[in-house]
Design a protein that fits this description.
By secondary structure, the protein is α+β, with helices and mostly antiparallel strands. It is 46% helix and 10% strand. It contains 13 helices and five strands. It has a five-stranded antiparallel sheet with strand order 2-1-5-4-3, with helices on both faces. It comes from Kitasatospora gansuensis.
Length: 285
C-alpha cells in the first residue's frame, strides 16, 4: 500500500497533468466561463469511468487505486509510457518487494565492469541517484567525486550545482533536466525516503534558481543520446550516452558515455593521461 507521502505525490502528479490538458485535447468544447486551468476534476472522472468524489480523493492522496483504475485515469490524462510507469510506481506497483539492496555489495560487484571501460566515463547510481562507483575516465572528465562532500555526491546535485560539469558539457540544460525527469520516473516510493528529501534540501541551498526543476511533476526516460563535451586543452569530444540496470538491483542505474569515433577515443586517451585541471565546484551550503 502507498505511504501517505507517496499518495500525495501521486495526487500532485495527476493534478499537474490534468491542469496541462485542454478540453479540446480530449474532445470537449471549451467555454469562456471556464475558470479551472486545464480539465475539471469531474471531466477526468467521467472520462475515466470513476466517481467524482473518488477521483477528488485520489488527487488529495486519501485513497489508493487499483492498477486497472489507475490505467483508466492515466489514459484519460493522455500520459505517455513514462508517465504511466511513474504513476504505477507512485501507487506501489512494479516495485521490488523487501528492503533496499545493500549498496556496498552492489558497488563491489559492478566496479570491475566500470573499470573495464578505459576510455568511457561510467558511473553507478543507486535509487536516489547517489554515486556508488565510478571509473577513471569519469573522474578525468567530470572531476573526482571524492572532491564532492559525501552528502552531495548525487547526480542531480552535480547536474545542478557543479560548475566543472556545466563548463565541460555543451548544451548542458536539456540533459540536466532529463536527469531530474528520469529520477522522478523511476523513483516511486524512493520519493518518500529521507535521503530524497535531503538531496532536495541541498539543491534548494546550492542551486535555488533551478528550484522549479525538482518542484516539477514531469517525467521522462533517460534515453540514449549524443553528448558533446569540451575539456580544456583537449578539444571537443563526441560521446554517446547509454544506460542500463544491473541485474542484481533493477533500482540502480549505470550510465556510460562511449566515445563516438576514433578521434574521440584519442582525445579521451589524452584526457585520461592528463586529467582536466580543476574547475571550482559550487561551494556547498
Amino acid at each position: 500500500m502507498s505511504t501517505p507521502l507517496v499518495s500525495q505525490e501521486l495526487g500532485a502528479f495527476l493534478r499537474a497533468h490534468r491542469e496541462q490538458l485542454k478540453p479540446a485535447d480530449v474532445g470537449l468544447r471549451s467555454t469562456a466561463r471556464r475558470r479551472t486551468p486545464g480539465l475539471r476534476r469531474e471531466e477526468v472522472a467521467s472520462l475515466s469511468g470513476v466517481g467524482l468524489a473518488w477521483y477528488t480523493w485520489l488527487e488529495q492522496g486519501r485513497v489508493t487505486a487499483s492498477r486497472q483504475v489507475l490505467e483508466a485515469v492515466t489514459r484519460a490524462l493522455q500520459l505517455d509510457a513514462a508517465g504511466l510507469r511513474h504513476a504505477m510506481r507512485l501507487a506501489g506497483y512494479h516495485e521490488p518487494a523487501g528492503p533496499a539492496p545493500v549498496d556496498g555489495g552492489l558497488a563491489a560487484a559492478v566496479q570491475p565492469v566500470l573499470d573495464s571501460w578505459p576510455l568511457s566515463p561510467a558511473v553507478l547510481l543507486d535509487r536516489h541517484f547517489d554515486l556508488l562507483g565510478w571509473n577513471t575516465p569519469w573522474s578525468a572528465l567530470w572531476g573526482p567525486p571524492e572532491a564532492v562532500p559525501a552528502d552531495r555526491r548525487n547526480l542531480m546535485w552535480l547536474m545542478a550545482a557543479d560548475q566543472r560539469l556545466r563548463t565541460v558539457l555543451h548544451d548542458w540544460e536539456p540533459l540536466a533536466m532529463n536527469v531530474f525527469q528520469h529520477f522522478r520516473a523511476q523513483a516511486g516510493p524512493a520519493l518518500a525516503d529521507p535521503r530524497t528529501g535531503e538531496v532536495y534540501r541541498h539543491l534548494d541551498e546550492d542551486a535555488p534558481e533551478l528550484r522549479h526543476w525538482w518542484g516539477c511533476h514531469s517525467v521522462a526516460e533517460l534515453t540514449a543520446r549524443a553528448v558533446l563535451v569540451e575539456p580544456a586543452g583537449i578539444g571537443p569530444v563526441r560521446l554517446t550516452l547509454s544506460s542500463f540496470h544491473p541485474v542484481d538491483d533493477p533500482s540502480a542505474l549505470v550510465l556510460l558515455f562511449t566515445p563516438a569515433g576514433a578521434e574521440d577515443r584519442a582525445r579521451m586517451t589524452s584526457l585520461a593521461a592528463h586529467p582536466l585541471r580543476s574547475v571550482p565546484t559550487r561551494e556547498a551550503g
